[in-house]
Amino acid sequence: MTMVHTLTPTADLKQDVDDVARLLTAEGERIADRDLDPWVADVDTAQLRDLYRDMVVLRRIDAEGMALQRQGQVGLWAPCQGQEATQIGTARAMRADDFAFPSYRETGVTYARGAGPEGYIRAWRGEAHSSYDPHEVGAAIPQIIIGAQTLHAVGYAMGIQRDGTDQAVATWFGDGATSQGDVNEAMVFAASYTAPVVFVCTNNQYAISEPVGVQAAAPIAGRAPGFGIPSMRVDGNDVLAVTAAMRWALDHARTGQGPAFIEAVTYRMGPHTTSDDPTRYRDKDEVERWRRRDPIARLEAYLRSQDAFDDEFAAAVAAESDEVAAAVRSTCLAMTTAPALSILDNVYAEPHTGLEDEKTWFAAYLDGFAEESAR
Question: Taking a C-beta distance cutoff of 8 angstroms, is the pair 196, 235 a contact?
Fold first, then answer.
């Protein structure tokens, strides 16, 4: 396989969201795809129910994070509603010994890799630089700098080559990040060194407030072959298709064939972050069109058609998602706000004079506020 469902730019064709590989229609009907079907031939009803559960739990964690930010308990939150299939489908396709390099929106990757309640919230609350131990979870700290994690992923993948193992690496980034030099440089290195890394571009249609068509005149998956990297453009709201695409990409990477690229076409239902107002740059009709493509409702429809979804299952999933959300909330509310000066702790493995000078300056700066309030 070299490329699947990637379009050639023409005068009247730009971002066609329907020209993608898929296995489930928006109505939940199972369809065939000769490239994807072999990669999910073993996926049974129990596994599909697990994927459904994961997506529902993720949506509930996301809603809790939004609520905590609105209540002043978290400084910022980057919601992922609508992108559950892309995150769960890709992350669940990975092996336990693979390594993930997510961006700031991949709460689902953090969840799928096994992080506990604090893993979703501690850094967003501002209590630590990292919410979890990357080596325990098998995932790097979520990256705020746009696209930087792709370079980190390629470097890690090149290390795997030197270790002589068959692990693979995956990195996630948005459509906006593809305009960053870091992402393009990462693909150059990955292709040149045949690094075992999978690039997952989550095309959620907007780079903050800029529609993808402004920066990409043709589908993003078409760029990767120019670097010598095979690509696939997949329906990012179809968790079964995403799982198949990721299995193909990981197999390609871990068998010594080099990097692979996935463009998962999906939609960000909420704001870019909680500091954003999406009503200023997109209309309600667009949002409603994508709401009808909802990844959770799609899989539910398919499971119902297979007599694999009933009230008992729905209630169990809802109870589990509420339990996880409650744990996230209680963990957040139990946190003690760290002193501002502690932000300089653990910056370096060994203390040095430059760091001590910064601490002295910062302490004096903080004392200035205390003096003002005392007047």
Answer: no
Closest Cα to residue 262, out of 80, 6, 54, 78? 6
Shortest CA distance to 111 belongs to which of 158, 69, 64? 64
Tell me how far apart the alpha carbons of residues 225 and 73 are, in angstroms, rounded to a whole number. Answer: 44
Q: Are 190 and 157 in contact (CB under 8 A)?
A: yes
Question: pLDDT tens digits, the chain, 375 residues: what are they?
Answer: 444 444 333 333 356 888 999 999 999 999 999 999 999 999 999 999 999 999 999 999 999 999 999 999 999 999 999 999 999 999 999 999 999 999 999 999 999 999 999 998 999 998 888 889 999 999 999 999 999 999 999 999 999 999 999 999 999 999 999 999 999 999 999 999 999 999 999 999 999 999 999 999 999 999 999 999 999 999 999 999 999 999 999 999 999 999 999 999 999 999 999 999 999 999 999 999 999 999 999 999 999 999 999 999 999 999 999 999 999 999 999 998 889 898 888 888 898 999 999 999 999 999 998 776 666
Q: How far apart are the first and last CA of the chain?
A: 72
CB 208 within 8 A of CB 272: yes
Distance in angstroms (rounded) separating the CA atoms of residues 212 and 309: 36
What's the residue count for the chain?
375
How would you class 7 by CB atoms within 10 Å of its CB: exposed for 0-12, middle for 13-18, buried for 19 or more? middle
Q: What are phi and psi of 33, to 5 degrees?
A: -145, 120
According to DSSP, the β-strands at 206-207 and 210-211 are: antiparallel
List C-alpha distances in Å: 322 to 65, 83, 196, 238, 315. Answer: 13, 20, 37, 24, 10
Q: Which two tokens stand for residue 183?
A: 């992402």
Nearest to 101 by CA among 152, 165, 159, 163: 152
> So which residues are the catalytic ones?
268, 272, 281
> Helix or strand or coil: residue 165?
coil
Query: Taking the model in full, what pTM does it have?
Result: 0.93
Residue with tokens 């390629």: 154
Spatial distance between the Cα atoms of 269 and 271, rounded to a whole number of angstroms:
7
CA–CA dist 123, 273 (Å, integer): 15
Burial of 284 (0-12, 13-18, 19+ CB in 10 A): exposed
